[in-house]
Amino acid sequence: QDAIDRKEKRSETFKTAVHGLETGTPALKTEELGRRAPQWVRDNLVTMCMRCKEPFNAIMRRRHHCRACGYVVCARCSDYKAELQYDGNRLNRVCQECYVFLTGHVVLEDREGKHKGILEKEAAEVSGRSLLCSSLQLLDKNGKGGTRGWFVIPQDDPLVLYIYAAPQDVRAHTSIPLLGYQVRDLSQGDSRHLFQLAQSRQVYTFVADTEELKRRWMRAMARSAAGITHLEEGEDADS
């Protein structure tokens, strides 16, 4: 009876995950999950995570596909792995709902027993031990608009830039691995203090409040991009 109850609970948890979304892509039946490869929902059909409903915007860019149901989900909602029968029982990236259904494991809100990820830590906690943190504006691709947020390079993870919507947010929207990027100065005739991170076709354009703040960020990002993870004795974080 206990096994039956667990099975029914898992099926009920997953019911809304495989039905009701009008995306034009047929969903797998519950009994087919993990046994048959899903048809992936196309990226251009959704503007937000199909699990937590967080929008995919200028800050939250990363889209991932659950290998079990084919839904488009954010990094946080796809931070799970389960064995899929159709892929030789190899571990694949899956969304939380599929993970619960396929494994029977209960996922607690604070993910008990798992190291708390940096994206889930409060901005104030990370900022208090950062190499550099401040408000910046991240421009969109056409450079005419953008999103203002709170940007942090933590001391304990100095090769990554973390982006919060506000200094008191309880978790970051996303992160940008800085290693290998080039830092560019965009000096212009207007009063905006612009600079860029560029790597291959991926380009991020930032606006700082002052020229001094821009220079500090450019130095800090250049260090991280070069893989420098420690400070010399007596050296400031942004020097």
Automatic annotation (TrEMBL):
<feature type="domain" description="FYVE-type">
    <location>
        <begin position="43"/>
        <end position="103"/>
    </location>
</feature>
<dbReference type="InterPro" id="IPR011011">
    <property type="entry name" value="Znf_FYVE_PHD"/>
</dbReference>
<dbReference type="InterPro" id="IPR017455">
    <property type="entry name" value="Znf_FYVE-rel"/>
</dbReference>
<dbReference type="InterPro" id="IPR011993">
    <property type="entry name" value="PH-like_dom_sf"/>
</dbReference>
<keyword id="KW-0677">Repeat</keyword>
<protein>
    <submittedName>
        <fullName>FGD2 protein</fullName>
    </submittedName>
</protein>
<dbReference type="GO" id="GO:0046847">
    <property type="term" value="P:filopodium assembly"/>
</dbReference>
<dbReference type="GO" id="GO:0008270">
    <property type="term" value="F:zinc ion binding"/>
</dbReference>
<keyword id="KW-0344">Guanine-nucleotide releasing factor</keyword>
<dbReference type="InterPro" id="IPR051092">
    <property type="entry name" value="FYVE_RhoGEF_PH"/>
</dbReference>
<dbReference type="GO" id="GO:0005085">
    <property type="term" value="F:guanyl-nucleotide exchange factor activity"/>
</dbReference>
<dbReference type="GO" id="GO:0005856">
    <property type="term" value="C:cytoskeleton"/>
</dbReference>
<dbReference type="GO" id="GO:0005737">
    <property type="term" value="C:cytoplasm"/>
</dbReference>
<dbReference type="Pfam" id="PF00169">
    <property type="entry name" value="PH"/>
</dbReference>
<dbReference type="Pfam" id="PF01363">
    <property type="entry name" value="FYVE"/>
</dbReference>
<keyword id="KW-0862">Zinc</keyword>
<dbReference type="InterPro" id="IPR000306">
    <property type="entry name" value="Znf_FYVE"/>
</dbReference>
<dbReference type="InterPro" id="IPR013083">
    <property type="entry name" value="Znf_RING/FYVE/PHD"/>
</dbReference>
<dbReference type="InterPro" id="IPR035941">
    <property type="entry name" value="FGD1-4_PH2"/>
</dbReference>
<keyword id="KW-0206">Cytoskeleton</keyword>
<keyword id="KW-0863">Zinc-finger</keyword>
<keyword id="KW-0479">Metal-binding</keyword>
<keyword id="KW-0597">Phosphoprotein</keyword>
<keyword id="KW-0963">Cytoplasm</keyword>
<dbReference type="InterPro" id="IPR001849">
    <property type="entry name" value="PH_domain"/>
</dbReference>
<feature type="domain" description="PH">
    <location>
        <begin position="112"/>
        <end position="226"/>
    </location>
</feature>
<dbReference type="GO" id="GO:0007010">
    <property type="term" value="P:cytoskeleton organization"/>
</dbReference>
